[in-house]
């Protein structure tokens, strides 16, 4: 929430890449940024599909109509370690993050307000920690339709490219 | 590594805040950025000490003289799940991250090259996941000399300010 398309987009790009790499299926981006969504879609065509960005004008309707647990990540919330069992019980989870100033309504509309440490933080880090706690790091083999994939190595870089794509 | 002080500093700021919030003691920043270090030091005066940024010109000497395990986080490395036990055995760990282009020497000078998923990623997320796997989320009470602290809440915000500071 509160993405500023006019500014350097690296922070939101990092948020999208981290969510994708750690197994999220979708990112609702408020406000929409079609150029950023297109760049992340291109990452998917190269490195494997299964993640999309959906631009959102009306964030309240997304939260109200979501069919799973809505978890707002904020340094003011309940400790992650205490509420993690409850989050794990929900088959679908929507993590909500914003910059320093989020609308006060967000605290009320979310099912849970959760802190990944009660310190000034990065929303990229907070999302990454929660996704890792929920599902771990997805194995490379899980990605479908990737044009290329990494062969893990102790030193250096190795990429295999797949034919016909 | 490879911080670009002239550009939007939010990404490196997020990296520092995430490292601090998840229990790191020090960030070596290459190249140095005194303004950024000062902003993070101000966060420490407000929210608790125990984290510092040290500006670095010669990154190779930092890695060569480091007394613990040097772990370069890269999507090309060995899977975190496989090498985590080895990282946990070291009392001191230096995590090294950079942007898209890091010097090839870094792969050779590091003790381990480790991937937090073999996908395009965020270095903020990668550092956060490893720190969480190593030490978990530090309890709020661990911070010393904080002028203010958060009282965890299910809804809204509550901060207590300490007298005499």
Structural features, described:
Two copies of one chain form a homodimer. Chain A has 165 residues and is α/β, with parallel strands linked by helices. Chain A has one domain (10-161): SPOUT methyltransferase, trefoil knot domain (Alpha/beta knot, 3-Layer(aba) Sandwich), CATH 3.40.1280. The first copy, chain A, has helices at 10-21, 34-47, 59-65, 80-89, 105-109, 123-135; strands at 26-29, 52-55, 69-79, 93-96, 112-115, 148-150, 159-161. In chain A, strand 3, helix 4 and strand 4 (93-96) form a beta-alpha-beta unit. The longest helix of chain A has 14 residues, at 34-47. The radius of gyration of chain A is 17 Å and the shape is globular. The model of chain A has no long low-confidence stretch (mean pLDDT 92). The interface between A and B is large, with 57 and 57 residues.
């Amino acid at each position: 929430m509160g993405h500023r398309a006019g500014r350097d987009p690296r922070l939101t790009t990092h948020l999208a890449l981290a969510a994708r790499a750690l197994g999220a299926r979708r990112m609702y981006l408020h406000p929409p940024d079609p150029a950023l969504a297109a760049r992340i879609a291109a990452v998917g065509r190269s490195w494997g599909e299964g993640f999309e960005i959906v631009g959102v004008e009306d964030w309240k309707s997304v939260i109200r109509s979501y069919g799973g647990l809505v978890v707002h990540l904020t340094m003011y919330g309940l400790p992650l370690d205490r509420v993690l069992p409850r989050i794990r019980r929900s088959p679908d989870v929507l993590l909500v993050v914003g910059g320093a100033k989020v609308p006060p309504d967000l605290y009320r509309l979310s099912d849970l307000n959760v802190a990944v440490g009660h310190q000034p933080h990065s929303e990229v880090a907070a999302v990454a920690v929660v996704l890792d706690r929920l599902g771990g790091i997805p194995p490379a083999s899980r990605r479908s339709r990737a044009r290329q994939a990494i062969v893990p190595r102790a030193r250096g870089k190795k990429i295999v490219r797949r034919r016909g794509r």
